[in-house]
Structures are given as C-alpha cells and as structure tokens.
Amino acid sequence: MKLKGRVPDLVTAMMRLDLTKEYDLEVTEHKKGRSLDANSYYWKLVGEFARWARKSTAYIHNDMLRYGPRVEGAEIWLPDTPEAEFRAMEARTYHLSPTDVCEEIGGVMKRKWELKKPSHMMTTEEFSRVIDGLIETIQGCGAPIETMTPAELAAVRGYHGKA
Question: Which listed site, 29, 66, 81, 99, has its alpha carbon 20 to 30 Å from 108?
Fold first, then answer.
C-alpha cells in the first residue's frame, strides 16, 4: 500500500489501518513532476515536426526518446530491415531505440534495440534532455518550426516592444 498526501490526510489514512498489524513506513517529501507547460511544449513541437517530416507523432516521439534514459538490461534483437524499424518506431505501447550493434543470429542480420524509459516516468531533468534533443533535431534538419518557448517568445516581443 502506498499513501500520498498532506500530513492531516496521511494521519487520517493511517488511523484506518489495522492496529494489530505492524507496518513499515517511509516518509518522503513530494517531488513535483515536470510542468504541464513543458509537456505541452514538447507535444506541440512533436506534432509540428511529425507533419513536416511526414511521420506519425508516435514515430517522432519514439525517435526523440533516444535522448532519454534507457531501461537497464532491457533490450531486444530485431531483424535489421526498414520494416522492423518502422514497426518498432510506430509502437505506442513500448519505446525502443536502435543501437549501432548488429549481429547475425540464426542466419539473419539483427540489430540490438534498447527499451527506453517512458516519458511520463522521466524526471524533469531527463525530460529536459529529450526536449533539447528534439529542438536540436528540428534545427539540424532545417525544419521551418519555431522552437522558442512561449516564455522566450514573450520576452522577445517585450524587448522589441520597448525599442
């Protein structure tokens, strides 16, 4: 069982526990997850880049997760073909990222893919690296997509408005 909440709510919940049993309790301060603004900004850029690149948002999202952390020890070997890559990148239930490692397995050339941490489970710092990678990718491709955040755009407008 996991309890979350403010102290009065936690005390109330604990008072409902069976008093004849022994429990282990660990108290940690709640860490705020990444902001909805960062999430919204990321998905806006993913959508615009997907339209420009003529790929699905799932494909672009999975591709950008290469900038995020991998799940330790979780890997899969897939045939080193464009069809296998397409299927892996279009997946919506798991996130795979290709590595440079290829081996012949059972007479078929296969590529090692790593399982990536889902974005909703990333820390603010981890997700920030994914956003930075997305921006770098967009700018590197020469895509005509504005990558400044709304706050950065407002600051620029304010600066130009005073001139």
Answer: 66
- With vertex at residue 122, the alpha carbon angle to CA 129 and CA 48, rounded to the nearest 5 degrees, is 55
Q: How far apart are CA 49 and CA 138, in angstroms?
A: 7
- Write out the E strands in the chain: 70-79, 96-105, 108-116
147-151 long-range contacts (CB < 8 A, ≥24 apart) are 147/45, 149/37, 149/41, 150/37, 150/41
Nearest of 128, 148, 141 to residue 68 by alpha carbon: 128
The answer to whether 78 and 90 have CB atoms below 8 angstroms apart is no
CB-CB contact of 76 with 96 (8 Å)? yes
In the numeric block, which tokens belong to residue 128? Answer: 């920030």
CA 84, chain centre distance (Å): 22
Is pTM beyond 0.70? Reply is: no
| Per-residue pLDDT tens listing for the chain (163 residues) | 677 777 777 788 788 888 888 888 877 766 655 666 888 899 999 999 999 999 999 889 988 998 988 887 778 888 888 888 888 777 766 788 888 899 999 999 999 888 888 888 888 889 999 999 999 999 999 999 999 887 777 777 776 555 4
